[in-house]
Amino acid sequence: MKITPIRIFTPYINQNVCNTPLTxxxxxxxxxxxxxxxxxLNKKEHTPFIYDTRELDLHCACCGKLMxxxxxxxxxxxxxxxxxxxIALKKITYEQNFQIxxxxxxLQKVYNFLKREAAKNTDLNIEELINTPKVQEYxxxxxxxxxxxxxxxxxxxxxxxxxxxxxxxxxxxxxxDFQQTENAIFQDLKLLSKNYPSETLYNILNKPKIKEFYLxxxxxxxxxxxxxxxxxIQQLSPEFAQKASIxxxxxxxxxxTESTDIIHKRTRVIEKFEEAFKDIADGSPLDKExxxxxxxxxxxxxxxxxxxxxxxVKYSRKNPNAIPKILVERIRNTNDHVKPEHRKYDEGAxxxxxxxxLCGKCNHNRKTESYLYSVKKNPDMPKNTQRxxxxxxxxINRGILAEYDSWPNDIKEPLGLESEGKIVIxxxxxxxxxxxxxxxxxxxxxxxxxxxxxxxELTDKIYRPYEKKNRMY
Length: 473
Ligand SMILES: [Zn+2]
Fold this sequence. Notes:
Elements: E1 17-19, E2 26-30, E3 36-40, H1 70-81, H2 85-95, H3 105-120, H4 126-130, H5 133-140, H6 144-159, H7 164-173, H8 180-195, H9 201-205, H10 208-226, H11 230-233, H12 238-257, H13 265-276, H14 285-299, H15 308-315, H16 322-329, E4 333-337, E5 355-359, H17 360-366, H18 371-377, H19 381-397, H20 407-418, H21 432-451, H22 465-471
Helix pairs in contact: 1-16, 2-6, 3-6, 8-15, 10-12, 10-15, 12-13
Bound molecules: zinc ion (ZN).
């Protein structure tokens, strides 16, 4: 069935989604050239308020760096890193030497279908294109072979990558507040991109000369860290000393003589020592103390999170778009679960009463440790957490952030418990009465301004929700 697309004059045109929150709870979804469907409107989609602290400019509660809003990162990945599907589909044929005519018939069919759809939706990347109703409909009636073909084409499209110069410029536009390691990585990449502006970062890192450069520096660091282990081994009782010496010898071999294509070397080295010390529970107190020190030293072996060289070596092997992606992911505003141990089985843990905003890197580094561990690594964490609480309280008091009035006080106790009293926050600046007043004012202004907006402004121009949010303060 083909229905002529209707044009809806509201300020809420968001790609294919239009809604009319002023007249009723209706979300009208229009799919260009295709169908029109009606759904219940989620009341939070278009309002003058923000309901998610990941969409605010906040400093990480752990490291204190300014984080990128969640939506900014999504937008960057989808619109800056990934090529629109219509371009990517062409590029895979010559950049990846992927000759469509030599492929099996199911793949050719899928490719041609996608190409036709991509031509109609030139602003969508491959993932977005696959999510359109037309392609979803196609997937429903497709066979297994075609599904595999679709997956392959999708993955190939996602590997089509921009020039290094373009990527560096786009990252710079985000004004990233990188941590030390990421900043060093970014500066190196910037320098490399100046030498090879039109090549992709991936190709640059895979140039033999450059690959060798980072690899040698990495090996040098790995060796110098390992060389600090023997004096500790000598202090162990003979039984453990012998096992540790074997592990050490193996480690030198892994780092220095194994092929450079083998991955997870650092992890394997740590595992060798874990294996050597597996019966340490029976050892003397001194043995226990020394093995702990050895394991701490090994934890300091360079990895892609703490060392530029390890990062370059690792990411020279990955998907070409993995480099810009991981860099922004590390400074993305994410929800950290304050009580991690309940994550899986306590329903209460997955709500905002249990969320603190941490950058992607700090969130990842913490894993399931308590905040006591985070405070040890980042002694400024209590101060940084208070700063974030103050920032959020300010957003609440100004009427921008809704449904968070009780959050500052809700989070107080869990933060204290998780950090064993190291993180004590002050919420005295919170003014719920003021917040309520500000929100009423805000809603009033919003309703007035939106309903008086002339229709000429409200054409097919794309209004994205994050842009509206940005304009609010
Ligand atoms: Zn952080």
